[in-house]
Amino acid sequence: MMSGRAVDAMNDEVVQRLLAAKGRAANIAQEAVRASREGALSSDGLVDALDAYVRAKYHVTREDCASGSLEELSSASVRKMQELGPGAAALQDSASNCDGADSAAVKHAYLMLAIQKDFGVKLDPFQVAFAKTVEELACLMEGQLIP
After folding, report:
1. What are 133's strand-pairing partners?
2. pLDDT above 90 for 46
3. pTM of the complete model beyond 0.90
């Protein structure tokens, strides 16, 4: 059994990792928006930036999940947080008994909100519901970021 100090140290480490990932994601979005303003953002560049952003937000590497499926990435993120232990699980975006939504679905919803904020785009909720991959999501953003 771990001591209180060991648990606190583990929680501090998890918080630092989460904050670092959030910062990486914000930097990725800022760079994409900057490239967009300069007319230097291509469709492929947007897909790559969005993929890197999602992986940073979800703390998921290609080794954790090679897929570009938003559902698989969300699930991999939940698994990754569970692997980090109870402190991480308590800190993750988790379902709060919202009509049976699981943690992966809630993470997906939060991700869509974060993307809109960080990339400065407005996404149609109906269209987002049908976007199954990072590439499909990038297509929905393309008209707002690529002239």
Report:
1. 69
2. yes
3. no
